[in-house]
Each structure stands twice: as structure tokens, then as C-alpha cells.
From TrEMBL:
Name this protein carries in UniProt: Uncharacterized protein
Region named Disordered: 1-47
Domain of life (superkingdom): Bacteria
Biased composition (Low complexity): 7-24
Biased composition (Basic residues): 25-47
């Protein structure tokens, strides 16, 4: 289940990369990605 969710996130990121998207939207997405950084570290440790 987590994999399909990541796929959706990747698609959303690709849409945000579009030049038509304002810079304000990308800035809002950055802070939301910060809390996920520690989660990635745990995944590495589990490996």
C-alpha cells in the first residue's frame, strides 16, 4: 500500500515541477517534506 501512495506523490511532484505552478506552491511543499526526512532515516536503519 505504501508504494502506490509514493507513486501518487511522485506524480504530484512532477505536476508541481511545471513552470506554470507558482513558486509559492513549491515553497509550501518544502516544509511538508522536512518531517518526512527522519522517516527515511528509519527506513535505512531497518535495511
Amino acid at each position: 500500500m505504501p508504494r502506490p501512495r509514493a507513486f501518487k506523490f511522485a506524480q504530484a511532484a512532477a505536476a508541481d515541477q511545471s513552470p506554470a505552478v507558482p513558486v509559492k506552491k513549491t515553497a509550501k511543499r518544502q516544509p511538508a517534506k522536512k518531517p518526512k526526512a527522519p522517516a527515511k532515516k528509519t527506513a535505512k536503519a531497518r535495511r
